[in-house]
Amino acid sequence: MATSKVTYDGLLRTSATHIKSQTQIITDAPTDNNGKGEAFSPTDLVATSLASCMLTIMGIKANNNNINIDGATSEITKIMDSNPRRIKEIQINIQMPPHNYSDHDKKILEKAAHTCPVALSIHPEIVQSINIVW
């Protein structure tokens, strides 16, 4: 079964529907590439997916090890290259909630972040600069 369906709506906008839940996401081309920039661009979604995946896998590991990470946040910066136009670097700052994490807990969570499926799927030439603030 397909995961999603994407429709080109015109004017450099697409709408993507997650088939199982019917949740929708729209994308726009960014302003530096002829678009309106009124929504995530496809490359924004790649960078954002990396952070979302990291927090999700950290959450799974946290649940399995009785570690509370509720309220963890991330800020993502995507840096583009021009020739060819592609993502050059994804910078992610993860801010952990103020808990007394042991060194062991930190090691578990850091490994989870760096080995999430999206991190392992991104082309190795794309720099992943990850900073976790405890």
Overview features:
single chain, 134 residues, alpha+beta, GMP Synthetase, Chain A, domain 3, 3 helices, globular
Please characterize this protein's 3D structure.
With 134 residues, the protein is α+β, with helices and mostly antiparallel strands. The chain folds into 2 domains: 4-33, no CATH class; 42-133, K homology (KH) domain (GMP Synthetase, Chain A, domain 3), CATH 3.30.300.20. It is 30% helix and 34% strand. It contains 3 helices and 6 strands. The chain has helices at residues 42-64, 103-114, 117-121, and strands at residues 4-10, 13-18, 24-28, 73-82, 85-95, 127-133. The strands form 2 sheets. The chain has a 3-stranded antiparallel sheet, with no helix packed on it. Strands 4-5-6 form a 3-stranded mixed sheet, covered by helices on one side. The longest helix has 23 residues, at 42-64. It is globular. The termini are far apart. The model has no long low-confidence stretch (mean pLDDT 97).
Protein topology:
Elements: E1 4-10, E2 13-18, E3 24-28, H1 42-64, E4 73-82, E5 85-95, H2 103-114, H3 117-121, E6 127-133
Parallel strand pairs: 5-6
Antiparallel strand pairs: 1-2, 2-3, 4-5
Helix pairs in contact: 1-2
- Listing every helix as H and every strand as E from the N terminus to the C terminus, the arrangement reads EEEHEEHHE
SS element count, helices: 3
- How many distinct domains? 2
Mean pLDDT: 97
CATH architecture of the largest domain: 2-Layer Sandwich
Return residue spans where pLDDT drops below 50 for at least 5 consecutive residues: none
Number of distinct beta strands: 6
Main sheet characteristics: 3 strands, antiparallel
CATH class of the largest domain: Alpha Beta
What is the rounded distance between the termini? 40 Å
Overall form: globular
Largest beta sheet: strand ordering: 1-2-3
Radius of gyration: 17 Å
**Beta-strand level of the residues, as a percent range?**
25-35%
Approximate helicity band: 25-40%
- CATH fold call of the largest domain: GMP Synthetase, Chain A, domain 3
Instruction: Label the structural class.
Output: alpha+beta
CATH superfamily of the largest domain: K homology (KH) domain
